[in-house]
Q: What sequence folds into this?
């Protein structure tokens, strides 16, 4: 059987990762793209989301919600690309993508010699990803290590067994992940990240903005369903991270979008709290 015939189709929470890839594929086709992700289209196609998504309610409000979600994916991708480049330039050579999904940074970004990049997710999306990577004959530009584990379990042990060295600085990325974990699991995840973070470690997080779920509906997150138990961001992310030993800065989508030359033209419809794009350095 070919990879294509054997490949399990996206389901449950990891289907969201293929929806995210579709958003990146759309951005990659723009002339003035903020990044180019050549594999994104193959992931979306393998998951049945390219060239178009399955029929969705096409009322104006639903269409606007989908556009807003895609836009937020593009801005956060650029934000974290920049964060990773800066961390790399500062000498960090270990990267851990938590809930990596169809993230293709190992393949599409330039990495200094000696960089090790760990992709942590559950087995099903990693298997799907591996089959698409084989089909595309993709070659990683750094040492890439896929680690199949559920982040609600004792993942640090599995990560260390896969070669992560907690005595060396790490950049941790949790992009589009925390929203799917219950609040106590998020706190435990952060405690575990902190315990594995040598001085000089960094972190990039995206948090679901308060009210986003009511405004967009959980179904606006590509591929997800309201039943997934999405959670919301902490009220005071800087203090929350400080409590775990991190010095954090918060950015809003609106502010980053303007900085990247993609200003949001509509005025805020509600008061915007501290941002959902977080960068942090281990104290
Ligand atoms: C919206 S996707 C984002 C994927 C990727 N970070 C990106 O931005 O392209 C969320 C990812 O988190 C993963 N995830 C959710 N809960 C998880 C858990 N408990 N353990 C491991 N991975 C999980 C899903 O499988 C999925 O790949």
A:
């Amino acid at each position: 059987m070919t990879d294509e015939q054997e490949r399990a189709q996206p389901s449950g929470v990891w289907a969201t990762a293929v929806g995210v890839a579709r958003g990146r594929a759309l951005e990659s086709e723009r002339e003035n793209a903020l990044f180019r992700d050549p594999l994104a289209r193959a992931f979306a196609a393998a998951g049945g989301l390219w060239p178009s998504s399955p029929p969705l309610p096409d009322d104006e409000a639903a269409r606007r919600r989908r556009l807003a979600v895609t836009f937020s994916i593009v801005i956060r991708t650029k934000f974290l690309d920049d964060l990773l480049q800066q961390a790399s330039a500062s000498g960090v050579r270990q990267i851990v993508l938590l809930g990596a999904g169809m993230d293709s940074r190992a393949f599409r970004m330039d990495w200094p010699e000696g960089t090790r990049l760990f992709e942590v997710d559950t087995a099903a999306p990693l298997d799907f990803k591996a089959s698409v990577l084989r089909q595309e004959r993709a070659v990683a530009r750094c040492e890439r290590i896929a680690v199949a584990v559920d982040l609600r379990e004792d993942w640090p042990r599995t990560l260390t067994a896969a070669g992560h060295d907690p005595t060396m600085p790490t950049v941790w990325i949790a992009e589009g992940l925390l929203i799917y974990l219950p609040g106590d699991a998020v706190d435990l995840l952060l405690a575990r990240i902190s315990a594995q973070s040598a001085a000089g470690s960094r972190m990039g997080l995206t948090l679901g903005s308060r009210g986003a779920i009511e405004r967009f509906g959980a179904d606006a997150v590509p591929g997800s369903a309201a039943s997934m138990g999405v959670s919301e961001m902490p009220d005071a992310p800087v203090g929350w991270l400080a409590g775990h030993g991190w010095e954090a800065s918060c950015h809003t989508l609106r502010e980053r979008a303007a900085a990247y030359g993609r200003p949001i033209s509509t005025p805020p419809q509600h008061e915007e709290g501290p941002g959902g794009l977080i960068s942090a350095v281990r104290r």
Remarks:
- The radius of gyration is 18 Å.
- The chain is about 40% helix and 15% strand.
